[in-house]
C-alpha cells in the first residue's frame, strides 16, 4: 500500500515519539533542530562513528537516541549549501521518505544552519516525499507480509521552518503539481484492458470538476473532419477512437492559447507490422504523451494558472485484425496531404499529424508542443536519461531546455532539415510514414513538421523517459509522469503574466 502523508508546517515543534528528521549541509558542525531533538548531544559522536559528513542525500539512522523525545533520529545530508536547487530539495524529500516506510509520525527540522530555506524549498521537500512514496498496486489483492498496518492511515508529518506562511502557500501549488504527475503515472500504469480510448477520454472528462472545458470527438466527428490518418490507425481495433479537447481559460479573453498535443495509443501491437512478443506488454504505456498532457491540464487548473491553454489527445488502439490497415495503404490526413503507410508500427505520427493540424487550424495557438512515445530510435540516441527535442523555433526550444534543466526532466535538441524530407518522400503519395532505420527519430519529427505550418512548434520524443526509465529519489514508478513538471515549469516561467 502506498504511503500517504498529512503535512503541517510549524515554526517550532518538539517531537513526541516518532521520527525526527534533521537536515545538515556538508561541513557543518550541527544539524537543523539538534538542540530540540538531541538535548544530550549524541549526534556528533554518532556522525563521527558513522562517517556522516552531510554529503548530499546520505543518511545516518539513530534508533532510540539517549535523552531524545523522538524514538528515532534520521540525519539527512544536503550537500553544498551554496548550490542547492529546487530539484535538490525534491530529492532530499524523496530520500527522507525512502527511510520512513515504518513511520507513524515524523518531524522534519528543515532550517539547517548555513541554508536560507524559502517557502518554496519547504514545499519542494514535502512534494519530494510524496513523489517518492507513490506506487501503483491497485490490482494486488495481497499486500506484502512486512508492510505495517500503520500505513493504512496517513503518516503525520510536521515540517518545522521559519517560513511557515510562505511554505503553506507554496505547498498548495506543489500539491497541484504532484496531483498532475500522479494522474499521468496512474494513466500510464493502468493495463490496456481497463484503459481504452473511451475510458481514457472519461478520465480526461473528470477535469471539468476543476474548471477545464472538455470536448470528446467520436469517430463520427473525426470522419467529418477528414482525419483519415488517425482513423486509419484505429480501424483494426474493436475499441473506437476518441479525440479529447481540453481548454483551460486562465488568461486574458483574447490571448492566444498555448497548445499541448499528446499521442494516446492505449496499446500498440504494431498492427499488421506486428511487434515481437517479448516486451510487448509495455506497449500499454504508448499513451505516455497523452497522459502527460492530461496531467498538465490538471496542474494548470488546480493551481489556477494565469494562462490560456489547450490540451488535445488522440486516443486509439493499434491492433492487427482483419480490418486493420495494411503496409502500402494510402490515407488522406485532415490537412489534405496523403500518406503512404510503409509500416503500421509507425502509427504515432499518423495520430499526431491529424491532432496537430486540428489544433493549429481551430485554435491558432501562440505555440504548440507535442509529446509522444514515438520512436525506439530516440532511446538508441539518448538512452532513458533525456527526451529528444525537435523544434522549428529557437526561442521555444531554449525555453524548453531551460525548463528541463530546472526540473531535471532533461531534453536534448535534435536536428531538423530539408535533407531529412527526402527520406520520407513517397513514390505514390505526398509522403510515407517512415524513412527507415537511419535517423528514425529525426524523420519522424520531420514528418510531423509538415503539419504545423509556421506556428512555433516543438516535438518531444519521450519514448525513453515516460515509462521504464531509471528510478530515483522522486520516482519509483514504472510510469514516470515525465513532462508534467517540465511543461508546468515552462508555462510558469515563460508564459504566465
From TrEMBL:
EC number annotated for this UniProt entry: 3.4.11.1, 3.4.11.10
Subcellular location: Cytoplasm
Keywords assigned by UniProt, alphabetized: Aminopeptidase, Cytoplasm, Hydrolase, Manganese, Metal-binding, Protease
Needed cofactors: Mn(2+)
Enzyme class of the recorded protein, top EC level: hydrolase
Entry's family note: Belongs to the peptidase M17 family.
Full protein name: Probable cytosol aminopeptidase
